[in-house]
Amino acid sequence: MAVIGIMAAAGLPALKGITGSTGRTGAINGLMSALDQARSAAILSGTNAYVVFPDPVVFGALAATATFSPSNYVLRSYAIFRDFNPDLETDTAAIQIGKWESLPQGIALDSTSVSALPQTTNLSLSLPGSSASQTLAARTIGFNASGGLLDPAATNGITVYEGYWNGTRGVPARPTRIVDRITLNRFTGRAFLSLATNTTGTY
Question: 165 Cβ partners below 8 Å, 6+ apart?
């Protein structure tokens, strides 16, 4: 029994690493899919479309309600919206495509990469759990009707890591962070994955 216990304990770090790797893979797959879906929505609707990332400044300042808690969404969720098409719709609020998606447990968006994204002003969004829209200046990756990036110069991609946002800063799951980064082609708007890297610093 003692031998089995020692073997099990020895396997824990490896098991934790596998779990973290699986979470990052799930997060990356979801984000890549959302970016591709937003790009397609922009082309098909003939309008601008966005993947919105709740950031600590704008979303973090929103008051919690019975249906919405900022801490549940800041740096751990995303949603797809597109502008209304006057030839198709009468409501001028941005139209949500799908639902708000959350990253796997133990995976977070890097705050520096989110705060560096273009800030789309006067974007009328439906907050999670609410049918009412609210006008916000949200951090987004946006696409135009041709599928290209709305702001190629400022859209540097998005980074995910193993850890969580504690309301003030990112807390990595290990001293040396393992991160994955999605970048986008400046001309076509297509997303691609950079190799996972180890980093230290502010998250």
Answer: 56, 74, 75, 76, 108, 109, 111, 171
Superfamily designation of domain 2-199: minor pseudopilin epsh domain (3.55.40.10)
Contacts of 20 by beta carbon, 8 Å cutoff, 6+ apart: 106, 107, 162, 173, 178
* Greatest mean pLDDT range, 7-16, 82-91, 181-190: 181-190
Can you tell me whether residue 52 is helix, strand or coil?
strand
**Which amino acid type is present at position 88?**
L
Per-residue pLDDT tens digits for 11-52 = 434 334 434 578 889 999 999 999 999 999 999 999 999 999
- As a whole number of Å, the CA-based R_g of the chain is 19
